[in-house]
């Protein structure tokens, strides 16, 4: 019964997302919604490692950067069609995630976070300094849209891109749900709850942790690739640690360890600054305060609170 | 609100009753907070100041209509994503067609990548990355010359001083600083000199003694420091502390106060700054002095040296709209921008190409100057040998 | 040879700052198991305060540092009580996210109070000593000496005093310490106070030798954690060795390999240590 109800809720949400562009009269908000949907993909990935496995990774934006630069550079240098380079980008990201995941996962808890943060710094420094490849701070301009001029859809139209990203975000959310419900997902949750116990029953926890880390990186790589073709411009600035912190915030605020959480959280981090403009320079302080208070008082995020409320109501009727 | 009320009152006084008075919204996307705010905030103020002056002297006249300017400014934090958000918002939500400001290269590059497809005109200010004007985007112009235009002039100047072995220490991860050094090197090599090493530092580095120690070991004739003021000030100090006593040249555009906070005036003595002439009271024209006074009165703080780039944009836009005779047809206004002469009101000293302010790339050129630190002040010593027409022709051959 | 020596001297000054930051981090981690990410920003707050007292109120430097230390002590205690204590029994991930939030808050407060322009604490030490071609500015020498003094004081405190022994007891075995009558409620407060005081000293050193500006604190705390991983988590000798190794590695890397990638090289050293000696250089296997 409960599962049916959940499916109905997701169905309704999807219908809402499909109708959204028709309800918005100002195209600017469609633009923000596209960005939010891209963040949904990245946050679903972040949730796998942070929410389910219990390891805070601070390199999600760095991996988005690898995805974004690899799709842009493959298009420039190998003349690959856009759809193909978008598909390859997550695998390039996965390669780097494997390389970095192995040493980082040798340390637990907080220190994993610090090591991943160092990786984000390394990625940023390389993107900034490896001019021949990345054009440094000036960035790469003129990254093509998925369809050419005579394509079936007008890709310059933000609505077209919205539906394109919506489909991918929905698919990736579905994929995340599948992973979480599988045996792998159960082991990931067990690792979060008691890693030593998982080891004690003879499961090689490190394989599962590495799987979660690499998969989360692939989500990020895909999000980055889609971002690159949407904005047509990338530079290292947008793939720094501040953006990795946004991914963490999205998961925490939305509800870590839930499938709905990252969706809510992603829209939250994209739209919140828009409504915090009045606060201007206090924005950073408010952001931090929200994060601290949310962790102390609502550690299960908005999705967690919503579920509690629903269950309470059901209990009463 | 206050500004609209004031402009309305002023317009009435100007006796423009015969024409139908309308409001033209112009947008500003610039860094109002964060590290870029040092450049972005003064630029935004400068646009507001220019708009106020234009309104006070009767607005922009298009046919029988008179337009009063209303400035809508958004913070792009010098961040590419934020900048595309800000411009999207200006175009999509506020219906703005003319967008000014743009202090910083990353954010500007992001907007430049899509502005061609919008019904809008983009006027770039302080952002110095060359690639912004290499693609000949028809609805984009820029008041600040690219860094390599200045770098070439600086290279000629240093070569004329007889230096053969120059060591570079720069924020080389930033594109336009690297291109300054490349152009500098080309001119230096023409005169038989060479760059003996290229050392880098990051925006947050404050200890450059490892790089300077290496440079000291190479025994150069001169050093060239290229980068933001805050780290650069430390380089000048640490060079003295390490006993490096060769001439020091730089491209930093910092104020006296920014340097003396870090280094003593004795440690700074004799340092050269080779940069666009920009606004310094010592070299300022009458317009420049008036601008300095009005800005200071309006905002209670002195204008930054680079802020007139956006002040001048506003007057260029005014002339272009009046020449095109329309505010609706952005294509016509964009074309007119590339056709106008340098407006009388501008503050920077532009070197027109074919008597036009902007060349076919949409690029304007200012003169470059050599400034030297002499007992506590930057003193304008001489113009640098700059060839705007030749550079303009060179810029047209690039397209990436 | 002169160049190598000069680079080592260059590296020791910044290495000393890393040691002080890392000492604060390592004691907090050893006792409470918290990665106190806001430590760098709090340290910079101390530096800013010192700057403010010296330039705005004309206090002598030492008095300004003393007041900044006291404020720092109180801030440390407040952070422990208000932010970390509520999440102590929750999953460790929560404490880390609280730490990230605190970092944003303290950075924001610094920006609001002291602006975005860089700040340099004025001192009047401008002589430069020259030892056979190796130069060292007076101020740099004092910073190195002060760091050495603080490290020695910290070691004596932990090894010789009663409170220090209690701290070590809690770090080694919390339950046994409770049985022995150590007050585990006040120990975290003491630890936070000491760690913040060390941080404030580091902030003053950075602020006088270099500069304090937005983002500098975050950069330092990352280096501090790198030192911990290098030296061994929770180990005081590890923090000292790790800090000096990192500082000198950076200087040598910038001087002899590549200045653009000096931070990358430092992180590569950290990762290699992680691969071949996960317990750190001085950690127990």
Automatic annotation (TrEMBL), chain A:
This protein's UniProt keywords: Cell membrane, Membrane, Transmembrane, Transmembrane helix
Protein name listed in UniProt: Branched-chain amino acid ABC transporter permease
GO cellular component, one term: plasma membrane
Organism encoding this protein: Harenicola maris
Pfam families hit by this protein: BPD_transp_2 (PF02653)
GO molecular function, one term: branched-chain amino acid transmembrane transporter activity
Compartments in which it is found: Cell membrane
Transmembrane domains' residue ranges: 7-24, 30-48, 55-74, 80-99, 111-130, 161-180, 210-228, 248-272, 284-306
Membrane topology (UniProt): Multi-pass membrane protein
Keyword Transmembrane assigned: yes
Keyword presence, Cell membrane: yes
UniProtKB/TrEMBL annotation, chain B:
Database matches in InterPro entries: BCAA_transport, Leu-bd, Peripla_BP_I
Signal peptide residue numbers: 1-19
Domain of life: Bacteria
Residue span, Leucine-binding protein domain: 24-374
One of the GO BP terms on file: amino acid transport
UniProt keyword list: Amino-acid transport, Signal, Transport
Family label: Belongs to the leucine-binding protein family.
Designated name of the protein: ABC transporter substrate-binding protein
Automatic annotation (TrEMBL), chain C:
CDD domains, alphabetized: TM_PBP1_LivH_like
GO MF annotation: an example: transmembrane transporter activity
Record GO cellular component, one term: plasma membrane
Keywords: Amino-acid transport, Cell membrane, Membrane, Transmembrane, Transmembrane helix, Transport
Domain of life: Bacteria
Membrane spanning residue stretches: 12-37, 57-83, 95-115, 139-158, 189-213, 225-248, 260-277
Compartments, as annotated in UniProt: Cell membrane
Family affiliation: Belongs to the binding-protein-dependent transport system permease family. LivHM subfamily.
Gene Ontology biological process terms, A to Z: amino acid transport
InterPro entries: ABC_transp_permease (IPR001851), BCAA_transport_permease (IPR052157)
UniProt topology in membrane: Multi-pass membrane protein
Name the UniProt record assigns to this protein: Branched-chain amino acid ABC transporter permease
